[in-house]
Amino acid sequence: MDTANPGDPRTSAEEASPTTTGxxxxxxxxxxxLLARKLAGLSQREAAEQTGLNxxxxxxxxxxxxxxxxxxxxxxxxxxxxxxxxxxLLGGPLAGPRGVPVKRLRRDNDGYVTVxxxxxxxxxxxxxxxxxxxDRMISPEQRRPVRIHYPAAA
Length: 154
Fold this sequence. Notes:
Number of strands: 2
Strand content: under 5%
Mean pLDDT: 77
Number of helices: 6
CATH class of the domain at 29-90: Mainly Alpha
Distance between the termini: 78 Å
Largest sheet: 2 strands, antiparallel
CATH superfamily of the domain at 29-90: lambda repressor-like DNA-binding domains
Order of helices and strands: HHHHHHEE
CATH architecture of the domain at 29-90: Orthogonal Bundle
Helix content: 25-40%
Strand order of the largest sheet: 1-2
Oligomer: single chain
CATH topology of the domain at 29-90: 434 Repressor (Amino-terminal Domain)
Low-confidence stretches: none
Shape: flat
Radius of gyration: 29 Å
Structural class: mainly alpha
């Protein structure tokens, strides 16, 4: 019988329980390469031929090895398989099931496309300076002198 109140703090076992129900793949170059190839609907051999790369190297890259010239390889794969170069190279979040959101343009009554313009930011550049908090300030009587030791001249 559970007698815990809803306001009681959770135990570490309850906090550690994940909310996901399945595995999440690691965000590695090999997994992104595999995903890009599967998205294009190609086998390893077909993808290697389409990009002009070696089939054996492609297989090794999907098995966890990294290419020596990663930038060149990522550029060729991104161009041939129509995936984002930065995502293939660096990783990051995936697009949702409906793809990347696109900002819609408005049409006025005459049929001309009007681009929404952001208002000009009038704030000064940089981070705003915060006033010091009185509870964290040190009074002069709380300060201690610091001795500086200089090495002896040779």
